[in-house]
Amino acid sequence: MAPACPRISSSFCILHFALCILHFAFCTRAYADSGWVLTTADFRSQPVTLNAVDAAAVSITPVGKPQLATIAYDDFLQLERASVVGSSNERFTLVLLTGDRILGQPAGCKDERIVWKNPALGEFSVPLKAARGILRTGRNADALDSARNDDLVKFSNGDSAKGIVVDVNSDKLKLDVAGSVVEIPVGDIEFLHFGQAGKPEPASGRAFRLRLLDGSLVTTSSLTISDTKTEFKLPDGASREIPLASLIAIEQLNGPVSWLSSRLPEKIVQIPFLPGPPKPTRMDAALGERPWSDGPKPISFGNRTYARGIGVYAYSRIDYVLHGSYKALRTQYCIAVGRNQYADVTVRIKLDGKTVHEVEHFRAGVLASPVVVEIPTAAKLLTLEVDYGDNNDAQDRFNWIEPALLRHIPAPETPEPPPATQPSTRPVPVE
User: pTM of the entire structure?
Assistant: First the structure.
């Protein structure tokens, strides 16, 4: 038999090798997850494919570029899916002191701990002193930050009751009212505010806040993503593994940037101009036209919507304790055009009570340029303040946009190109 042609044999080997390379590349891509937007510490964003997350870094592939890239945690701010919006049919949300909000249903109380059940996470428990309350999903309870001695139950019909929670599950709440245990159908509850809640310790060390497909927010100190799996630890320390497809956002806490809307304020003060109940403060949401009753609205200006921010109504003061680890504050702000033509406020940023930024007569239709305030190491308290301007507090629905603490003082930013403003609808005085 004649020997095989060396040229044919060599060509076949080269072709086989090329096919192996393509197969390897295909398999590698199969484990990656496309459709993410990466935001780095300089607030720049780009579409990427997420390949992996481990203790050392985040591995991504920029869209349109074949090579992998590694993002160190000193540069990493967050990853968000570009076009996935979470939703859930769960009736209730457990709110923790850390700011976590986990959808699901109560499964009991035992040994001063509440047991919670979430479809993706299963059952887990947290100390009652670490829980702020339970809300009907999609609703707000703006008094959750206030200290209480008793547990408070607010019913859907507007009534309320005080006592001590003995047990709560998916069907009933048992409330001890002056020594007598009352059973309340869980379906009648608007929110449950736990009394004697503790105060969280200042966060330290690397941590991540995960947003799940059902809208839950979970903080974890341990996160690993590989292949199509996401592994992390729950608030009770138990490990969980969920499909990567169930995760829609990853935010690094205590990293180079810390969103103020993710941090727990030391104090929130809201003083209406006329006597009445305080109007709410919304984290990562704006106020509706009736801020005392409307649900949260997205923060937007022009054709852009902002995922991070704080919606307030004059007069508003929000205090944050500083611990010397951040060197600057960066924020923008606006009052969106709409039914806000009479809005007029004074904006202030203070450090230890001293005003370091002030703008009077700020009105609707203007998107403020980014403001950067350097923070001395010795500073102890940061204050965001929105005061009355003209027209008392009429329509003074104000949005802090992407307020964040920075570990490094940023380089001067290039102003955004027009349109940076919208035409004001403020009435022109008739002389």
Answer: 0.77
Is the pLDDT assigned to residue 17 strictly greater than 60? Answer: no
How many whole angstroms from its chain centre is CA 372? 21
25's tokens: 């590349």
CATH of region 259-406, choose from 3.40.1360.10, 3.50.50.60, 3.40.50.2300, 2.60.120.1060: 2.60.120.1060
The position carrying tokens 């190109």 is 417
User: What is the DSSP annotation of 35-65?
Assistant: EEEEEETTS-EEEEEEEEE-SSEEEEEETT-
Give 172-200 as a DSSP string.
EEEEEETTEEEEEEGGGEEEEE-SS---P
| Contacts for 375-380: CB closer than 8 Å, 24+ residues apart | 375/322, 375/326, 375/327, 375/328, 375/329, 375/351, 375/405, 376/351, 377/324, 377/327, 378/324, 379/322, 379/324, 379/351, 379/352, 380/321, 380/322, 380/352
Q: How far is CA 215 from CA 17, 121, 211, 240, 430, in A?
A: 46, 13, 6, 17, 49
Q: Where are the domains of the chain?
A: 92-193, 259-406
CB atoms within 10 A of CB 157: 8
For CA atoms 237, 167, 132, 92, give the dihedral sign.
positive
d(CA 324, CA 407): 10
Residue linked to tokens 């307030």: 312
Handedness of CA 180, 183, 188, 194 (dihedral sign): positive
User: Which residue shows structure tokens 């001695």?
Assistant: 149
Residue type, 340: N
What is the tens place of the pLDDT at every residue in 118-146? 999 999 999 888 888 898 877 665 555 55
pLDDT digits (tens, 9 = 90+) for 211-249: 999 989 999 999 999 988 999 998 888 899 999 999 999
| pLDDT attached to residue 178 | 87
pLDDT tens figures, 152-184? 898 888 888 999 999 999 899 999 998 899 999
Q: Which residues contact 332 (CB under 8 A, 6 or more apart)?
A: 367, 368, 369, 370, 371, 400, 401, 402
Helix (H, G, I), strand (E, B) or coil at 247: strand
Q: Which of 147, 150, 112, 129 lies closest to 198, judged by CA?
A: 129
Rounded Cα gap, residues 200 and 290, in angstroms: 32
